[in-house]
Structure formats: structure tokens, C-alpha cells
MBL fold metallo-hydrolase
Amino acid sequence: MWFLLAILVLTILVVRFYPPLGRKTRGDHTRSRNFKDGTFQNQIETTMQMDIKTSFGLLRDFIKGDPTRRPPARIQAERWTKGAGTRITWFGHSAFLLELDGKVILLDPMFGKAPTPFPFGNKRYGTLPVEIENLPDIDVIVLSHDHYDHLDYGTIQKLKGKTQRFLVPLGVGDHLIRWGVEPTRITEHDWWEELTVADIQFVCTPARHFSGRSLFDRNASLWCSWVIRGHDASIFFSGDSGYGPHFKEIGAKYGPFDVTLMECGQYDARWAGIHMVPEETVQAHMDVGGKVLMPIHWGGFTLSLHSWTDPIERATAAARQHGVSITTPKIGQTVIVGETYPNEVWWK
């Protein structure tokens, strides 16, 4: 009895005082059409199979292990250097550095070693293209949602002195405030809200996913995708999302896009509503009116049961089948929009 009580008290203390867990939003989000009964909602019904039987089956599958879920050796990233033109540099998983109209933008900059609140387990596949300390000043940091593989406490601690502006979906700002970012540098946004920062248009657009970093904050903050439109190029960043009608809606309002950074990886039939399989990734790219597809949300961490190369192999096959232009840069290899679109099969 006393042991269980001690565990309960310890859990409460960790949730309350351990900074990497963030902070449950304290804002009033009733103005949002996506907020209902105290939580944020998806446009369409979205379920995850997480009953006791399914959870035990999932645990069994993870414990069994499979050497193909990780690369056989550490991936050495290409080294990033600043350059001219519209440039997109992938840091692995869903983290990107975008150079657009002379501005520097970071998308979901998770540069930590593991997508967990604790410093162990599920390590990154390899190196980063550049150390955070060597990055230039960042004009805007854009976040899609609050999951650990997209929002990292240690990364924000190192980046918060390098930027004056964070763009986040509703509720995510409270995590940043707990971590020492001044509220004046944060703007929170609902789906379909438009704003202009540094002469670049940003639009917070829908996604089909969920949120939460601890035991008591499921769907307390919003998740989203982003439209980024400069003078030189237009980019779509999907964030995390299952397939849904929102892609066609976004394409009708803001397409076409020069490049789509489209989620492709960490899928499973048990959570098909919140992550796309690669064939859906290609369809979503076509739905939004993309010209060149760059599959993301793979190549960084193992968060599902498929082989680490399954996402990119299936996505490239589906792209060929539909006549879709696809680029598959190495981690750290820069894509110059309108000029160079690497397509080496480097993962072999």
C-alpha cells in the first residue's frame, strides 16, 4: 500500500515539476471551432486502437525486435552551410531549416538525441547537419504540435536566444513559456488563421492528429500543418497527420506549392487515422497541388514497427506510379527550390 502511494506521489511530482513535460495550457480556447468539451478535436472522426488487448499486442511486437527498424550503422549527415536562393535542409524526421526570401525559418526543430522526456532510449539514427550553437539567428521558429519528436525541451533551451518569434498552434505556447520564452515572442494560432512575419505569409492549417506530453494533457493543445508563402516560393509543411479531406481544402485555398514536406513514416494499422501510409502521402501531395514531394517523418527515429526504409521505398514507388516528382535528399543535403532536387537512393 505504501509503495503504491509513493509511486503515485512521485508520478504527480514529476508531472508537476519536471520541465521537459511542459505545461498544460491555461488559455481559454472556446473561441476555436475545434475546441469542444474541454479538448481539441479533429475535423473527422479519428480513433486509435489502444484497448488493453491491442496495447499488450503492441508491447509484444516492440519487444520482439527487428533489426530492420534501424539503420545498420549511424547516419552521417551532410554539413549545412548558409547559401543563396530558396533552400530546404532536412535534419532528419520532421525538422527542417528553410531559407526563403533571405529569411531563416526552422520547422519543428527537434535536435535532441531521443524523442522522450528522459535522456535514454530510442536514440537518433545519426548526426545533425550543424550544431545549434553554429546556426545563424533564426527569423521564425514554426511548430506543428507538442509531441516529443517535434518539440524538444533541450533544443528550445538552446534556440530561444536565437529568435524573436515562435509561431505555434493554440495551447503550445504554454510549454514555451514554462521553458523561459517570453510570451511577447509567441503567437498562437487556430486553423485557417493567416499572418505575415518578415514579409512571408504563414497560414496555420488543419491536420488530423492529436497532442499531449504527459498523463493529463491529451488534446489540451492544437495540432496543425503550415502554409508558408514567400515571394520566391510556396511551401506546404504537413506536420503529423492522417489522411483526410483537409488536404484538398488546403490545396483549393492556397495551392499550388513548389514543394510539399509531407508526413511519411511511423504508421501502423492500429493508428491509421493519425499517420499516413506512404501511398496516402503521395495522394495528399496531389490533393494540395504540390509540384515536388519531399517525404518526411522518417530517417530520424524508430517510432513504429515497419522497417526504417519502408516509408521512402513505398513513397518513391507510389510517386512513380502517379507521375509525381519526388526528391529524396540525404540528411543535411540542401534542396534548392527550382534548381536541384536530389533523388539518390542513399538509404541502400
The first helix runs from residue 2 to 17. The chain is about 20% helix and 20% strand. The helical segments are 2-17, 52-64, 153-159, 173-178, 246-254, 278-288, 310-322.
